[in-house]
Structure formats: structure tokens, C-alpha cells
Design goal:
Largest interface: A-B, 33 and 27 residues
Distance between the termini of chain A: 32 Å
Low-confidence stretches of chain B: none
Oligomer: heterodimer
Number of helices of chain A: 12
Largest sheet of chain B: 2 strands, antiparallel
Shape of chain A: elongated
Shape of chain B: globular
Strand content of chain B: under 5%
Strand order of the largest sheet of chain B: 1-2
Number of strands of chain B: 2
Structural class of chain A: alpha/beta
Distance between the termini of chain B: 31 Å
Radius of gyration of chain B: 20 Å
Mean pLDDT of chain A: 89
Helix content of chain A: 25-40%
Strand content of chain A: 25-35%
Helix content of chain B: 55-70%
Number of helices of chain B: 10
Radius of gyration of chain A: 25 Å
Mean pLDDT of chain B: 95
Structural class of chain B: mainly alpha
Chain lengths: 314, 272
């Protein structure tokens, strides 16, 4: 196995008739990433994950897992890869342990020897001999993680693993994800919850209506937001003239006795000197960056998706 | 090969854990018991119009042959359809197709495992009927020589061998029906539709067998092959219907299975 990226999707498109579920999606997940795939429900996250796992055929484009194409290489492409899409499903008429035995048989590679260990890890050992039909949603979710870990994966694909869990269940699931990431497993986790992704992930891709509108770190996402500043001076009239004259300052508006404009840190430093030289006293100069939540909602709810991905890359 | 064997084993274990399996196998075992009981209560007469029917009270060995005939009309097609029509669509219904297709086995291997399991179940149902029928008949009428369709006497032990051979060809058209059920199951992803559709297919074959104007195609209808075993009960044995049953049923099995295989390989696994 080469050092190909765990996930490399290029120009993935999935069309259902006229509906474009996934539109030209590029995704790269590097080794060791906990990658958040973030977007509102119905944005195309699950469809993308299905294409990555070879469950559905892309209309065009290609996906690679550690350099292997699940369409061309079949199950071999899933070596070292595990996970689930849209909630793990099991045979309701078999017990949890028998479901795992069945899947371990389909895995080979010593998966069978890990059954007790993974049941212990997700705390399902007490209920392992009960039929899955009687399991709660949270238990199935945990069994889903257990069944994935049977494969001793290097890449774990988790589709909304905390959806439908109660707060304690969510906390436990997130703790488990952190723990697995700490063990060195690369994780691709889809979610519609920004807070979850913020807590767990080092990199994110934000999808909206089938298109990636941002890919990078959340820190960079914050930085891409044109920072806005609030300025209060002893002489608003002249201060405004100075601001307008300054290169790198835009959208200057007067709000009562304050000025508001967009700029970056360096320009703002220059501006403060310019104001001083002009004999204008600064009483307040405050950065007012948008919160991550606002950025996320702006990306996923606005009229037209903004091409932030390019901006971030630049 | 080992991979397919593992899948096959689990397909059988899954069948063992589902009620519909017992429904089919149970029916296959209950029918000969009811048949023998009814005749025993009646005390005389029998199904004189059908092969071996007039000898039903001569030996218990005639019972499974006579029941084979009765159950070919709809009982065995239904029992076959019950599992074959469900074995792929139940995975869709349970949402487990994605579960097993994201492990280390190829789609083709999974499909082959399912085909083998469906066929095994069908064979098991016919064998179960034959065994129970023989035992029930023997209890009532004894284990005595059989009278062949040519009118000659056949020793009881030889008759048992003929029964085994007959079951062997009798399952061939059922495998054809199972193949059709698997195709419906794969394409429709709906168990009820597949089971009903498969039964309709089997009944349509019988309809074609009796409507006027179909004489030229009759020897190649699936339902006709249910009588191929008569060849074994003639002296000397008539191999022509047996050989025809083998290749006709092979065609009926191959075409839908090949289609289902291709669909299964390329299918988009969506839904829950």
C-alpha cells in the first residue's frame, strides 16, 4: 500500500434524473485527519459517502480510498476501511453478537478474534445475546461502531454518528470518536451539527445543495470572513475621510457616532497611525468577526453559495 | 471459493432464523401427512387419475410420488417463491445490503451465496416432503413393492432409489422458479411483489400448458418438467423427458440468474 490519501474524491457527480444530488465534489482526507463533512440534511453528504464506499455509482468523477477505486477494485478497495452510511443496519432476527460474527466472517483477516473486544469497547457486552430487533437506536449506533472496528480500520467513515442519540449518548459517541482518532485512525465524519464538528474535527468540508462551499480548517474559515471593525474617534467626520482614503479598507458605513468597515489586521494597524498623524484620537477600535455559526449559516442558507473555497485556497 | 462457502453458510443460518423458512418447510411436511390421514380416514379409493394414484393403498412408497404431483400445481412453486422472492429483497427491506456490501466480500460472491442458499432450501423442502411422505405412507400402507408406470413390480428398496432420482429431476423446474424469484427479488426489492410475481409466473406456465394453440411449445414449458420423473418409473427407463428437463430447466434458471446477477452487481444501494 502506497501513501495515497485515505480519501481522494475528484469531481464526483451523482444525478437522479434532473436532480443533482452531488455536484462536482472534491474531497481529500489526509492521514490522521478527523475530517468533518458538514452540511444541512439533504445536502448530499450521505450520497457522497455512498459513492466513496462503492455502494452507488457516480454519474461521473471518481473516488479513491488509499488509492483504490471501489468501483474497479470492488471489496479490495475497502481494505482498511470501515464505516456506515445513514445509520448502521443489522439483521433484527439475529443477536448483536451473531450479527458481528456474520460480519467478521465476511471480513476475514482475524476480525473474529476482535468481537469480544469491540463489544466491550462500545459497552454492549451485556446485551450482545439479545436480538438486534429489540435494540434501542443508541445501541444500534454503538453496534455500528463495533462492527466497523472489527475491521481494524485505518479509515473510518461515520455518517451522522450522533443523530438520534440522547445528550449522554452523544457525549459518549464523541468521546469514542476522539479516542479512536487518538489511536491514529483517520476519520471522516459527516454531521449537520457545527458544534460537533468544531469539537472533533481538524478539517472540514461544508456542502450545500450538493456542492462543496468550503474546504479547509475551521480556523481558516473564520479568517476568510472579511473581518469587520468598529471605530470610535474624537472626530467621526474626518476619521471617515481618512478611512475612505486608506487602501485596504472597504464598506465604510457610519453608525451613529461609530464607523464600521471591513479590513484586515495589517491595514487596521496602518490606519491607527494615520488617524494619529491626522490628530484624531481613537477611543475604540474593535474587531467584530462573525461567529463560526454565522459563517456556517451564511454558507449553507444564503441565496447563492459563495465561492469561499477558492478564497480560502488563495 | 472459501469466501462463497462462508457467505452460503451465513445465508443458511439467516434462513434458519426466519419464520418464513419454517412456514415453507412445515407446509412441505404437513401436506403428505394430511394426504395420508385423509385417505386413511376415508378407507377406500384414491386419486386414480394420476400416475401411481391407483396404487396408493398398495404401498407407502406410492405416497411421495402422488404428493409430488399434487404439490407441483402451486404448493411447491409457492414454497420456493417464499424464500427465493425474499432472499435479496429482505436485505433491502432491512437495510442490511449496505452492511454486508461494505465488508471484504464482492457483490458477486454475495449473490452466489444467496442463490445457493435459495436452491438448498428448495431442495430441502422437496426432500422433506419425500421423507415424511414415505414414512407416513409406510406407516399406513407398509413398505411394499411399487408398481411402475409400465405395470411391472419394483422392489421397495429399488423404489426408494427411484424416488431419490425422481426428487432429483423434480427440483429442476423448481430451481427455474427460484431463479425467476431471485430476479424479481433483486429487481423489485419488494418481498411481497416478488413472491406473488413468482407464483404468477409458475401458474402462467401451467395456463400455457392447457390453453389451445400452445401444443408446439408445451414440451419446453417449465411446468411440464414437473412430470419428467415419470421417465424413471417406466421399464425400461425413458430418459428423454429427463434429459429435456435438464436442459430446459437449465435455460430457465440461467437467464433470470444472469440478469439478476448483472443487476445486483451494478445496483445503487440507496435507501435506509
Amino acid at each position: 500500500m502506497t501513501d495515497a490519501a485515505p480519501v481522494a474524491a475528484r469531481a464526483l457527480v451523482k444525478r437522479y434524473g434532473k436532480l443533482v444530488a452531488v455536484d462536482n465534489v472534491d474531497l481529500t482526507v489526509e492521514r490522521g485527519d478527523v475530517f468533518g463533512y458538514l452540511g444541512p440534511n439533504g445536502a448530499g453528504k450521505t450520497t457522497s459517502l455512498r459513492m466513496l464506499l462503492g455502494l452507488i455509482r457516480p454519474t461521473s468523477g471518481e473516488s479513491r480510498l488509499f488509492g483504490c477505486d471501489p468501483l474497479a477494485d470492488g471489496a479490495k478497495a475497502l481494505r482498511g476501511v470501515a464505516g456506515f452510511v445513514e445509520g448502521p443496519r443489522f439483521y433484527p432476527y439475529l443477536s448483536g453478537r451473531r450479527n458481528l460474527r456474520l460480519l467478521a466472517d465476511l471480513d476475514g483477516d482475524g476480525a473474529k478474534s476482535r468481537i469480544e473486544e469491540v463489544l466491550e469497547l462500545v459497552e454492549l457486552r451485556d446485551r450482545a445475546d439479545d436480538k438486534v430487533g429489540g435494540y434501542s437506536h443508541g445501541m444500534r449506533q454503538r453496534l455500528g461502531i463495533a462492527s466497523s472496528l472489527l475491521r481494524a480500520p485505518r479509515l473510518l467513515l461515520l455518517d451522522e454518528p450522533t443523530t438520534g442519540l440522547d445528550p449522554a449518548g452523544m457525549r459518549d459517541m464523541r468521546a469514542l470518536v476522539k479516542r479512536l482518532a487518538a489511536e491514529g485512525i483517520t476519520i471522516l465524519l459527516s454531521s449537520h451539527l457545527l458544534a460537533e464538528v468544531e469539537e472533533l474535527c481538524n478539517r472540514v468540508a461544508i456542502i450545500r445543495s450538493g456542492r462543496i462551499v468550503y474546504e479547509g480548517t475551521l480556523v481558516d474559515l473564520k479568517a476568510t470572513a472579511a473581518s469587520s471593525y468598529r471605530l470610535r474617534t474624537t472626530d467621526p467626520e474626518r476619521a471617515r475621510a481618512v478611512c475612505v482614503a486608506q487602501n485596504g479598507i472597504g464598506d465604510v458605513v457610519v453608525e451613529e457616532s461609530d464607523l464600521r468597515f471591513t479590513s484586515d489586521e495589517e491595514t487596521v494597524a496602518t490606519l491607527s497611525l494615520a488617524l494619529g498623524q491626522a490628530g484624531i484620537g481613537i477611543t475604540a477600535l474593535v474587531p467584530e468577526t462573525a461567529s463560526l455559526e454565522e459563517l456556517f449559516l451564511g454558507l449553507t442558507e444564503g441565496e447563492e453559495p459563495r465561492a469561499l473555497a477558492e478564497e480560502a485556497a488563495a | 471459493m472459501a469466501a462463497v462457502a462462508g457467505i452460503y453458510k451465513w445465508e443458511l443460518l439467516k434462513l434458519r432464523a426466519q419464520k418464513r423458512t419454517y412456514l415453507g418447510l412445515g407446509a412441505a411436511m404437513v401436506v403428505p401427512i394430511i394426504f395420508v390421514t385423509a385417505l386413511a380416514v376415508k378407507g377406500n379409493g384414491g386419486p386414480n387419475d394420476i400416475p401411481l394414484g391407483r396404487y396408493i393403498r398398495e404401498t407407502g412408497l406410492a405416497t411421495p410420488f402422488v404428493v409430488l404431483f399434487f404439490m407441483s400445481i402451486w404448493a411447491f412453486p409457492l414454497i420456493t417463491a417464499l424464500v427465493a422472492g425474499d432472499i435479496v429483497s429482505s436485505e433491502s427491506h432491512n437495510g442490511t445490503l449496505k452492511t454486508i456490501l461494505t465488508r471484504s466480500r464482492e457483490r458477486g460472491q454475495i449473490f452466489v451465496g444467496k442463490v445457493l442458499a435459495a436452491v438448498t432450501y428448495t431442495v430441502a423442502a422437496v426432500v422433506a416432503m419425500a421423507v415424511v411422505g414415505t414414512i407416513a405412507g409406510t406407516i399406513e400402507w407398509g413398505f411394499k413393492p411399487l408398481i411402475s408406470l409400465s405395470g411391472t413390480h419394483v422392489s421397495a428398496s429399488h423404489g426408494l432409489g427411484l424416488l431419490a432420482a425422481s426428487v432429483g429431476v423434480y427440483v429442476l423446474p423448481l430451481i427455474g422458479i427460484a431463479a425467476f424469484g431471485l430476479l424479481l427479488s433483486t429487481v423489485t426489492q419488494n418481498s411481497a411483489a416478488s413472491v406473488v410475481g413468482t407464483l404468477m409466473f409458475a401458474l402462467l406456465m401451467q395456463l400455457l400448458d392447457v390453453v389451445p394453440g400452445t401444443e408446439s411449445i408445451r414440451p419446453y414449458l417449465l411446468s411440464v418438467q414437473f412430470s419428467a420423473w415419470h421417465g424413471f418409473l417406466r421399464v425400461p427407463a425413458d430418459w428423454a423427458p429427463v434429459v429435456r428437463a435438464i436442459w430446459v430447466c437449465a435455460l430457465y434458471a440461467f437467464v433470470p440468474l444472469a440478469a439478476a446477477y448483472l443487476v445486483f452487481l451494478r445496483r445503487d444501494v440507496t435507501g435506509e
